[in-house]
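We treat protein structure as text, and this decision shapes the records that our systems exchange. Below, we set out a record of this kind in full and without editing:

***
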Amino acid sequence: MSFDDFPYNDSDANSTQNYDAIYKNIKEAINNSKLVFLDNQDLEDSIGYFIDENEPDKALEIIDYGLTIFPHNVEFLLLKAETLIDLQEFDKAFAMLKFIENKEPYNTRVYILRASIYELQNKEENVFDEYQSALLKNIDEPDLIYEELGFYFSTKLNYSEAAKNFIKCIEINKDNIEVFEALTDIYIERLGAIEGLAFFEQFTNSHDDCFNAWYSVGRLFQSEKLYHKAIKAYEKVLQNDKYHFIAIENVIQCLKSTENYERIIKICKYYSKFMYPYFIYEMAETYFDLENAEESLKYYFQLYDENQNDIDAILGIAKCFAFQGYFQKAFQFLEIGINNNKEKSELLVFKGLLFKETGDTDNAIETLEKALTLQFEDDNCDVYFELSDIYFESNDFQSAIDILVEGIEKNANNHRLMFFLAACYYKNNDGEKAYFCFEDAMLLDNNFYNIFFEKCPLAQNDNLFIDLINKHNKAD
Protein backbone atom coordinates (compact mmCIF):
# COMPACT_ATOMS: atom_id res chain seq x y z
CA MET A 1 0.00 0.00 0.00
CA SER A 2 1.27 3.52 -0.80
CA PHE A 3 0.13 7.10 -0.46
CA ASP A 4 -1.73 6.61 -3.73
CA ASP A 5 -4.22 4.57 -1.70
CA PHE A 6 -5.27 7.50 0.48
CA PRO A 7 -9.00 8.20 0.17
CA TYR A 8 -8.72 11.72 -1.15
CA ASN A 9 -11.96 13.38 -2.29
CA ASP A 10 -11.35 13.18 -5.99
CA SER A 11 -13.38 15.58 -8.10
CA ASP A 12 -12.02 14.42 -11.47
CA ALA A 13 -15.33 12.86 -12.54
CA ASN A 14 -17.21 16.07 -11.76
CA SER A 15 -14.57 18.11 -13.59
CA THR A 16 -14.91 15.93 -16.69
CA GLN A 17 -18.67 16.46 -16.68
CA ASN A 18 -18.16 20.23 -16.31
CA TYR A 19 -15.75 20.42 -19.26
CA ASP A 20 -18.06 18.33 -21.44
CA ALA A 21 -20.96 20.61 -20.48
CA ILE A 22 -18.94 23.73 -21.37
CA TYR A 23 -18.05 22.23 -24.76
CA LYS A 24 -21.70 21.32 -25.39
CA ASN A 25 -22.86 24.86 -24.50
CA ILE A 26 -20.26 26.37 -26.82
CA LYS A 27 -21.28 24.07 -29.70
CA GLU A 28 -24.91 25.07 -29.23
CA ALA A 29 -23.95 28.76 -29.11
CA ILE A 30 -21.94 28.46 -32.35
CA ASN A 31 -24.75 26.60 -34.13
CA ASN A 32 -27.33 29.16 -33.00
CA SER A 33 -25.04 32.20 -33.52
CA LYS A 34 -25.38 33.14 -29.87
CA LEU A 35 -22.93 34.11 -27.14
CA VAL A 36 -22.47 32.15 -23.93
CA PHE A 37 -20.67 34.24 -21.35
CA LEU A 38 -18.20 31.97 -19.55
CA ASP A 39 -15.55 32.70 -16.99
CA ASN A 40 -12.10 33.19 -18.52
CA GLN A 41 -10.58 30.56 -16.19
CA ASP A 42 -13.30 28.01 -17.01
CA LEU A 43 -12.47 28.37 -20.69
CA GLU A 44 -8.71 27.99 -20.08
CA ASP A 45 -9.24 24.94 -17.85
CA SER A 46 -11.54 23.34 -20.44
CA ILE A 47 -8.99 23.91 -23.20
CA GLY A 48 -6.22 22.41 -21.05
CA TYR A 49 -8.43 19.42 -20.25
CA PHE A 50 -9.13 18.60 -23.91
CA ILE A 51 -5.46 19.08 -24.83
CA ASP A 52 -4.46 16.64 -22.06
CA GLU A 53 -7.17 14.20 -23.20
CA ASN A 54 -5.70 14.31 -26.74
CA GLU A 55 -8.81 15.91 -28.23
CA PRO A 56 -7.19 18.91 -29.96
CA ASP A 57 -10.17 19.53 -32.26
CA LYS A 58 -12.45 20.19 -29.30
CA ALA A 59 -9.77 22.34 -27.66
CA LEU A 60 -9.44 24.41 -30.87
CA GLU A 61 -13.20 24.99 -31.05
CA ILE A 62 -13.25 26.33 -27.48
CA ILE A 63 -10.16 28.50 -28.14
CA ASP A 64 -11.66 30.06 -31.25
CA TYR A 65 -14.88 30.73 -29.37
CA GLY A 66 -12.91 32.24 -26.47
CA LEU A 67 -11.08 34.53 -28.88
CA THR A 68 -14.42 35.89 -30.15
CA ILE A 69 -15.07 37.05 -26.58
CA PHE A 70 -11.49 37.90 -25.56
CA PRO A 71 -9.69 38.63 -28.87
CA HIS A 72 -6.48 39.93 -27.23
CA ASN A 73 -6.10 37.18 -24.62
CA VAL A 74 -2.48 35.98 -25.00
CA GLU A 75 -3.15 32.80 -23.01
CA PHE A 76 -5.78 31.75 -25.56
CA LEU A 77 -3.39 32.58 -28.40
CA LEU A 78 -0.65 30.45 -26.82
CA LEU A 79 -3.10 27.60 -26.29
CA LYS A 80 -4.12 27.88 -29.93
CA ALA A 81 -0.48 27.59 -31.01
CA GLU A 82 -0.05 24.56 -28.73
CA THR A 83 -3.17 22.93 -30.19
CA LEU A 84 -2.03 23.59 -33.75
CA ILE A 85 1.24 21.87 -32.88
CA ASP A 86 -0.71 18.85 -31.58
CA LEU A 87 -2.56 18.81 -34.91
CA GLN A 88 0.84 19.07 -36.69
CA GLU A 89 -0.23 22.25 -38.47
CA PHE A 90 3.23 23.70 -38.01
CA ASP A 91 3.05 26.61 -40.47
CA LYS A 92 -0.08 27.96 -38.77
CA ALA A 93 1.55 27.44 -35.36
CA PHE A 94 4.69 29.34 -36.45
CA ALA A 95 2.53 32.22 -37.72
CA MET A 96 0.58 32.32 -34.45
CA LEU A 97 3.78 32.32 -32.37
CA LYS A 98 5.23 35.15 -34.49
CA PHE A 99 2.03 37.15 -33.90
CA ILE A 100 2.32 36.60 -30.12
CA GLU A 101 6.04 37.43 -30.15
CA ASN A 102 5.27 40.80 -31.76
CA LYS A 103 2.82 41.51 -28.92
CA GLU A 104 4.99 40.10 -26.11
CA PRO A 105 8.63 39.67 -27.21
CA TYR A 106 9.71 38.44 -23.77
CA ASN A 107 7.10 35.70 -23.40
CA THR A 108 9.03 32.52 -22.56
CA ARG A 109 6.40 30.09 -23.82
CA VAL A 110 6.72 31.44 -27.38
CA TYR A 111 10.28 30.13 -27.57
CA ILE A 112 9.47 26.85 -25.81
CA LEU A 113 6.62 26.10 -28.20
CA ARG A 114 8.67 27.06 -31.24
CA ALA A 115 11.51 24.80 -30.07
CA SER A 116 9.01 21.97 -29.65
CA ILE A 117 8.03 22.32 -33.33
CA TYR A 118 11.68 22.11 -34.41
CA GLU A 119 12.09 19.01 -32.23
CA LEU A 120 9.08 17.37 -33.87
CA GLN A 121 10.61 18.23 -37.25
CA ASN A 122 13.93 16.68 -36.13
CA LYS A 123 15.72 20.02 -36.64
CA GLU A 124 18.09 19.59 -33.71
CA GLU A 125 20.25 22.69 -34.37
CA ASN A 126 17.15 24.88 -34.52
CA VAL A 127 15.94 23.53 -31.16
CA PHE A 128 19.14 24.53 -29.39
CA ASP A 129 19.37 27.85 -31.24
CA GLU A 130 15.80 28.73 -30.23
CA TYR A 131 16.56 28.17 -26.55
CA GLN A 132 19.82 30.14 -26.79
CA SER A 133 18.00 32.95 -28.58
CA ALA A 134 15.46 33.10 -25.76
CA LEU A 135 18.18 33.40 -23.11
CA LEU A 136 19.89 36.23 -25.02
CA LYS A 137 16.62 38.22 -25.20
CA ASN A 138 16.20 38.62 -21.44
CA ILE A 139 12.90 36.76 -21.42
CA ASP A 140 10.48 36.77 -18.47
CA GLU A 141 11.17 33.27 -17.13
CA PRO A 142 14.68 32.05 -18.04
CA ASP A 143 14.38 29.20 -15.51
CA LEU A 144 11.79 27.57 -17.78
CA ILE A 145 14.25 27.62 -20.68
CA TYR A 146 16.92 25.96 -18.52
CA GLU A 147 14.31 23.39 -17.49
CA GLU A 148 13.48 22.64 -21.13
CA LEU A 149 17.18 22.42 -22.01
CA GLY A 150 17.69 19.99 -19.12
CA PHE A 151 14.96 17.67 -20.37
CA TYR A 152 16.16 18.14 -23.97
CA PHE A 153 19.69 17.01 -23.10
CA SER A 154 18.25 14.10 -21.05
CA THR A 155 16.46 12.79 -24.14
CA LYS A 156 19.80 12.99 -25.98
CA LEU A 157 21.45 11.00 -23.13
CA ASN A 158 23.79 13.94 -22.42
CA TYR A 159 23.28 13.80 -18.67
CA SER A 160 26.13 16.14 -17.71
CA GLU A 161 24.64 18.96 -19.80
CA ALA A 162 21.17 18.09 -18.53
CA ALA A 163 22.39 18.42 -14.93
CA LYS A 164 24.10 21.77 -15.65
CA ASN A 165 20.88 23.22 -17.04
CA PHE A 166 18.71 21.83 -14.25
CA ILE A 167 21.11 23.43 -11.75
CA LYS A 168 20.77 26.79 -13.51
CA CYS A 169 17.00 26.37 -13.33
CA ILE A 170 16.84 25.70 -9.57
CA GLU A 171 19.30 28.51 -8.85
CA ILE A 172 16.62 30.84 -10.26
CA ASN A 173 13.54 28.97 -9.05
CA LYS A 174 13.96 26.91 -5.88
CA ASP A 175 10.29 25.87 -5.96
CA ASN A 176 10.42 23.78 -9.13
CA ILE A 177 9.85 20.32 -7.62
CA GLU A 178 9.88 18.55 -11.00
CA VAL A 179 13.38 19.81 -11.80
CA PHE A 180 14.73 18.85 -8.36
CA GLU A 181 13.30 15.35 -8.93
CA ALA A 182 14.80 15.09 -12.43
CA LEU A 183 18.21 16.33 -11.27
CA THR A 184 18.25 13.90 -8.35
CA ASP A 185 17.27 11.01 -10.67
CA ILE A 186 20.19 11.88 -12.96
CA TYR A 187 22.64 11.78 -10.04
CA ILE A 188 21.24 8.51 -8.69
CA GLU A 189 20.92 6.71 -12.02
CA ARG A 190 23.62 8.27 -14.21
CA LEU A 191 26.24 10.57 -12.73
CA GLY A 192 26.55 9.04 -9.27
CA ALA A 193 24.98 9.90 -5.93
CA ILE A 194 28.33 11.04 -4.52
CA GLU A 195 28.58 13.80 -7.16
CA GLY A 196 24.99 14.74 -6.39
CA LEU A 197 25.67 14.97 -2.66
CA ALA A 198 28.70 17.18 -3.31
CA PHE A 199 26.53 19.58 -5.31
CA PHE A 200 23.65 19.64 -2.85
CA GLU A 201 26.01 20.12 0.12
CA GLN A 202 27.15 23.40 -1.48
CA PHE A 203 23.58 24.28 -2.48
CA THR A 204 22.11 23.76 1.01
CA ASN A 205 24.98 25.70 2.60
CA SER A 206 23.73 28.80 0.81
CA HIS A 207 20.03 27.78 0.68
CA ASP A 208 19.41 26.10 4.03
CA ASP A 209 15.70 26.89 3.78
CA CYS A 210 15.27 25.12 0.42
CA PHE A 211 13.37 22.02 1.47
CA ASN A 212 13.22 20.64 -2.07
CA ALA A 213 17.02 20.45 -1.88
CA TRP A 214 16.93 18.69 1.49
CA TYR A 215 14.47 16.17 0.08
CA SER A 216 16.95 15.50 -2.75
CA VAL A 217 19.73 15.06 -0.19
CA GLY A 218 17.57 12.52 1.61
CA ARG A 219 16.96 10.56 -1.62
CA LEU A 220 20.68 10.58 -2.48
CA PHE A 221 21.73 9.33 0.98
CA GLN A 222 18.97 6.70 0.84
CA SER A 223 20.21 5.48 -2.57
CA GLU A 224 23.66 5.02 -0.99
CA LYS A 225 22.10 3.12 1.95
CA LEU A 226 23.22 5.85 4.36
CA TYR A 227 19.89 5.64 6.11
CA HIS A 228 20.62 7.68 9.26
CA LYS A 229 21.86 10.61 7.16
CA ALA A 230 18.87 10.25 4.86
CA ILE A 231 16.49 10.45 7.83
CA LYS A 232 18.19 13.65 9.07
CA ALA A 233 17.72 15.23 5.63
CA TYR A 234 14.04 14.21 5.50
CA GLU A 235 13.59 15.64 9.00
CA LYS A 236 14.70 19.02 7.64
CA VAL A 237 11.88 18.74 5.10
CA LEU A 238 9.39 17.77 7.80
CA GLN A 239 10.39 20.76 9.94
CA ASN A 240 8.92 22.89 7.17
CA ASP A 241 5.99 20.65 6.30
CA LYS A 242 5.20 17.90 8.78
CA TYR A 243 2.61 16.47 6.37
CA HIS A 244 5.09 15.98 3.50
CA PHE A 245 3.87 12.41 3.04
CA ILE A 246 6.50 11.18 0.60
CA ALA A 247 9.22 12.29 3.01
CA ILE A 248 7.42 10.45 5.83
CA GLU A 249 7.09 7.35 3.66
CA ASN A 250 10.82 7.49 2.87
CA VAL A 251 11.67 7.89 6.57
CA ILE A 252 9.64 4.74 7.28
CA GLN A 253 11.48 2.85 4.51
CA CYS A 254 14.84 3.96 5.97
CA LEU A 255 13.76 2.88 9.45
CA LYS A 256 12.75 -0.52 8.05
CA SER A 257 16.23 -0.89 6.57
CA THR A 258 17.75 -0.16 10.00
CA GLU A 259 15.12 -2.35 11.73
CA ASN A 260 14.05 0.53 13.96
CA TYR A 261 10.52 -0.83 14.33
CA GLU A 262 9.76 1.01 17.55
CA ARG A 263 10.16 4.38 15.84
CA ILE A 264 8.09 3.26 12.83
CA ILE A 265 5.20 2.41 15.16
CA LYS A 266 5.53 5.75 16.95
CA ILE A 267 5.42 7.68 13.62
CA CYS A 268 2.51 5.62 12.33
CA LYS A 269 0.46 6.08 15.49
CA TYR A 270 0.90 9.84 15.24
CA TYR A 271 0.07 10.19 11.55
CA SER A 272 -2.75 7.63 11.53
CA LYS A 273 -4.91 10.34 13.15
CA PHE A 274 -4.65 12.40 9.96
CA MET A 275 -4.22 9.95 7.08
CA TYR A 276 -5.76 6.67 8.14
CA PRO A 277 -5.11 3.70 5.83
CA TYR A 278 -1.41 3.90 4.97
CA PHE A 279 -0.16 4.28 8.53
CA ILE A 280 -2.51 1.64 9.93
CA TYR A 281 -1.23 -0.71 7.24
CA GLU A 282 2.40 0.12 8.10
CA MET A 283 1.72 -0.63 11.80
CA ALA A 284 0.18 -3.97 10.85
CA GLU A 285 3.22 -4.80 8.68
CA THR A 286 5.68 -3.69 11.36
CA TYR A 287 4.09 -5.81 14.08
CA PHE A 288 4.15 -8.76 11.67
CA ASP A 289 7.87 -8.14 11.04
CA LEU A 290 8.28 -8.27 14.83
CA GLU A 291 6.48 -11.66 14.75
CA ASN A 292 3.64 -10.22 16.80
CA ALA A 293 0.81 -11.61 14.68
CA GLU A 294 -1.82 -10.93 17.34
CA GLU A 295 -1.11 -7.17 17.36
CA SER A 296 -0.73 -7.14 13.59
CA LEU A 297 -4.20 -8.71 13.21
CA LYS A 298 -5.75 -5.88 15.22
CA TYR A 299 -4.65 -3.30 12.66
CA TYR A 300 -5.41 -5.44 9.61
CA PHE A 301 -8.94 -5.92 10.94
CA GLN A 302 -9.25 -2.14 11.39
CA LEU A 303 -8.57 -1.76 7.68
CA TYR A 304 -10.87 -4.64 6.78
CA ASP A 305 -13.73 -3.20 8.86
CA GLU A 306 -13.37 0.06 6.92
CA ASN A 307 -13.33 -1.68 3.53
CA GLN A 308 -14.10 -5.37 3.17
CA ASN A 309 -12.66 -5.36 -0.36
CA ASP A 310 -9.26 -4.12 0.83
CA ILE A 311 -6.96 -6.73 -0.75
CA ASP A 312 -3.96 -5.75 1.41
CA ALA A 313 -6.03 -6.16 4.58
CA ILE A 314 -7.38 -9.56 3.48
CA LEU A 315 -3.89 -10.79 2.60
CA GLY A 316 -2.51 -9.46 5.88
CA ILE A 317 -5.18 -11.23 7.95
CA ALA A 318 -4.62 -14.52 6.09
CA LYS A 319 -0.86 -14.11 6.51
CA CYS A 320 -1.24 -13.62 10.27
CA PHE A 321 -3.53 -16.63 10.66
CA ALA A 322 -1.06 -18.77 8.68
CA PHE A 323 1.84 -17.52 10.82
CA GLN A 324 -0.09 -18.56 13.94
CA GLY A 325 -0.69 -21.99 12.41
CA TYR A 326 -4.41 -21.41 11.86
CA PHE A 327 -4.33 -22.51 8.23
CA GLN A 328 -8.02 -23.34 8.06
CA LYS A 329 -8.89 -19.79 9.18
CA ALA A 330 -6.45 -18.39 6.62
CA PHE A 331 -8.06 -20.43 3.81
CA GLN A 332 -11.57 -19.46 4.90
CA PHE A 333 -10.72 -15.77 4.95
CA LEU A 334 -9.01 -15.97 1.55
CA GLU A 335 -12.04 -17.72 0.10
CA ILE A 336 -14.32 -14.87 1.25
CA GLY A 337 -11.95 -12.36 -0.31
CA ILE A 338 -11.69 -14.32 -3.58
CA ASN A 339 -15.47 -14.58 -3.89
CA ASN A 340 -15.79 -10.81 -3.48
CA ASN A 341 -12.81 -9.97 -5.73
CA LYS A 342 -12.89 -12.55 -8.52
CA GLU A 343 -10.60 -10.55 -10.83
CA LYS A 344 -7.85 -10.01 -8.24
CA SER A 345 -4.91 -12.36 -8.77
CA GLU A 346 -3.12 -11.56 -5.49
CA LEU A 347 -5.53 -13.55 -3.31
CA LEU A 348 -5.38 -16.63 -5.52
CA VAL A 349 -1.58 -16.45 -5.60
CA PHE A 350 -1.35 -16.35 -1.81
CA LYS A 351 -3.86 -19.21 -1.54
CA GLY A 352 -1.74 -21.25 -3.97
CA LEU A 353 1.42 -20.54 -1.95
CA LEU A 354 -0.40 -21.54 1.22
CA PHE A 355 -1.38 -24.86 -0.37
CA LYS A 356 2.28 -25.29 -1.35
CA GLU A 357 3.45 -24.52 2.19
CA THR A 358 1.03 -27.07 3.66
CA GLY A 359 2.15 -29.74 1.18
CA ASP A 360 -1.04 -29.84 -0.91
CA THR A 361 0.73 -29.73 -4.27
CA ASP A 362 -2.27 -30.63 -6.42
CA ASN A 363 -4.35 -27.72 -5.10
CA ALA A 364 -1.28 -25.47 -5.20
CA ILE A 365 -0.77 -26.18 -8.91
CA GLU A 366 -4.47 -25.79 -9.74
CA THR A 367 -4.74 -22.48 -7.84
CA LEU A 368 -1.56 -20.93 -9.21
CA GLU A 369 -2.48 -21.92 -12.77
CA LYS A 370 -5.89 -20.28 -12.27
CA ALA A 371 -4.17 -17.16 -10.93
CA LEU A 372 -2.13 -16.91 -14.14
CA THR A 373 -5.35 -16.48 -16.12
CA LEU A 374 -6.10 -13.21 -14.27
CA GLN A 375 -4.67 -9.72 -14.68
CA PHE A 376 -1.61 -8.71 -12.64
CA GLU A 377 -0.77 -5.16 -11.61
CA ASP A 378 2.93 -6.01 -11.84
CA ASP A 379 4.59 -8.88 -13.67
CA ASN A 380 3.67 -12.45 -12.75
CA CYS A 381 7.20 -13.87 -12.69
CA ASP A 382 6.95 -14.99 -9.06
CA VAL A 383 3.91 -17.15 -9.87
CA TYR A 384 5.74 -18.88 -12.72
CA PHE A 385 8.74 -19.34 -10.42
CA GLU A 386 6.68 -20.89 -7.59
CA LEU A 387 4.65 -23.08 -9.94
CA SER A 388 7.82 -24.37 -11.61
CA ASP A 389 9.35 -24.97 -8.19
CA ILE A 390 6.51 -27.36 -7.29
CA TYR A 391 7.25 -29.47 -10.37
CA PHE A 392 11.00 -29.17 -9.76
CA GLU A 393 10.73 -30.47 -6.18
CA SER A 394 8.59 -33.36 -7.53
CA ASN A 395 11.41 -34.17 -10.00
CA ASP A 396 9.08 -33.38 -12.92
CA PHE A 397 11.70 -31.25 -14.63
CA GLN A 398 10.04 -31.23 -18.05
CA SER A 399 6.83 -29.71 -16.64
CA ALA A 400 8.93 -27.13 -14.80
CA ILE A 401 10.71 -26.33 -18.08
CA ASP A 402 7.40 -25.90 -19.94
CA ILE A 403 6.10 -23.47 -17.28
CA LEU A 404 9.33 -21.45 -17.23
CA VAL A 405 9.51 -21.16 -21.04
CA GLU A 406 5.96 -19.76 -21.02
CA GLY A 407 6.87 -17.37 -18.19
CA ILE A 408 9.98 -16.11 -19.98
CA GLU A 409 8.02 -15.54 -23.20
CA LYS A 410 5.46 -13.45 -21.32
CA ASN A 411 7.90 -11.55 -19.12
CA ALA A 412 10.59 -10.40 -21.54
CA ASN A 413 13.37 -12.82 -20.59
CA ASN A 414 13.24 -12.38 -16.81
CA HIS A 415 16.66 -13.21 -15.35
CA ARG A 416 15.31 -15.15 -12.31
CA LEU A 417 13.20 -17.40 -14.51
CA MET A 418 16.14 -17.84 -16.89
CA PHE A 419 18.50 -19.00 -14.11
CA PHE A 420 15.83 -21.41 -12.88
CA LEU A 421 15.30 -22.70 -16.42
CA ALA A 422 19.05 -23.39 -16.65
CA ALA A 423 18.77 -25.40 -13.42
CA CYS A 424 15.84 -27.41 -14.80
CA TYR A 425 17.74 -28.26 -17.98
CA TYR A 426 20.76 -29.26 -15.90
CA LYS A 427 18.65 -31.57 -13.74
CA ASN A 428 16.99 -32.92 -16.88
CA ASN A 429 20.45 -33.96 -18.14
CA ASP A 430 20.51 -31.39 -20.94
CA GLY A 431 23.82 -29.71 -20.16
CA GLU A 432 24.07 -27.82 -23.45
CA LYS A 433 20.73 -26.02 -23.00
CA ALA A 434 21.55 -25.41 -19.32
CA TYR A 435 24.80 -23.71 -20.33
CA PHE A 436 23.19 -21.45 -22.95
CA CYS A 437 20.33 -20.51 -20.57
CA PHE A 438 22.83 -19.73 -17.84
CA GLU A 439 24.80 -17.52 -20.23
CA ASP A 440 21.62 -15.69 -21.31
CA ALA A 441 20.67 -15.17 -17.67
CA MET A 442 24.13 -13.77 -16.89
CA LEU A 443 23.72 -11.27 -19.73
CA LEU A 444 20.38 -10.15 -18.26
CA ASP A 445 21.68 -9.81 -14.68
CA ASN A 446 24.81 -11.53 -13.41
CA ASN A 447 24.02 -11.00 -9.71
CA PHE A 448 21.51 -13.84 -9.33
CA TYR A 449 23.40 -16.95 -10.41
CA ASN A 450 22.98 -18.41 -6.90
CA ILE A 451 19.41 -19.32 -7.98
CA PHE A 452 21.02 -21.88 -10.29
CA PHE A 453 23.49 -23.25 -7.72
CA GLU A 454 20.86 -23.52 -4.97
CA LYS A 455 18.87 -25.81 -7.26
CA CYS A 456 21.95 -27.62 -8.64
CA PRO A 457 24.64 -27.62 -5.92
CA LEU A 458 26.79 -30.15 -7.82
CA ALA A 459 27.16 -27.61 -10.65
CA GLN A 460 29.39 -25.52 -8.37
CA ASN A 461 32.20 -27.87 -9.35
CA ASP A 462 31.43 -27.58 -13.08
CA ASN A 463 34.12 -25.46 -14.72
CA LEU A 464 31.84 -24.49 -17.63
CA PHE A 465 29.63 -22.43 -15.30
CA ILE A 466 32.49 -21.18 -13.10
CA ASP A 467 34.34 -19.91 -16.20
CA LEU A 468 31.19 -18.07 -17.34
CA ILE A 469 30.90 -16.31 -13.98
CA ASN A 470 34.57 -15.31 -14.04
CA LYS A 471 34.21 -14.03 -17.59
CA HIS A 472 31.31 -11.77 -16.64
CA ASN A 473 33.01 -10.58 -13.43
CA LYS A 474 36.05 -9.50 -15.46
CA ALA A 475 33.81 -7.69 -17.94
CA ASP A 476 32.25 -5.72 -15.05
Q: What stands out?
A: Residues 1-13 have pLDDT under 50 and may be disordered. Residues 209 and 436 are 56 Å apart (CA to CA). The chain is about 75% helix and 0% strand. The two ends are 36 Å apart (CA to CA).
